[in-house]
Amino acid sequence: MKHAILVIAIGAASLTGCKSNDASEQTAEVKKKAYHCERAEKLGSMITKTRCVTQADKELEEQKSKEAFRDARAKAPRIYGGG
User: Fold this and answer.
1) How far apart are CA 46 and CA 44, in angstroms?
2) For the chain, what are the domain ranges?
3) pLDDT value for 18
4) N or C, which end of the chain is more exposed by having fewer CB within 10 Å?
């Protein structure tokens, strides 16, 4: 009985793994357009705020923050330790 259930489970898992790549490409496009919502609260505040953004907007925001960090780091004065 246990062996039969195991064989059925393995067979079902192997059949579900044989999907075409078209579905994965479609899900990638859907994920780019889908909204991702997260709740955040400011430091020192108990009031939460819900923020919903698409994956594309999230990637753009991440790229802008990396550029701002890079620019701020380039403008910072360099301190060399004497030694």
Assistant:
1) 7
2) 31-75
3) 54
4) C
User: CA 8, 12, 15, 16: dihedral to nearest 10 degrees?
Assistant: -170
User: CA angle, 48 as apex, 42 and 49 as ends, to 5°?
Assistant: 95
List the beta bridge partners of residue 53. Answer: 36
Nearest to 55 by CA among 27, 31, 29, 80: 31
pTM over cut 0.70? no
pLDDT of amino acid 28? 67
DSSP labels for 37-66? EEEEE-TT---EEEEEEEHHHHHHHHHHHH
Check residue 68 and give its pLDDT.
Answer: 95
β-bridge partners, 51:
38
Average pLDDT over residues 31-41: 81
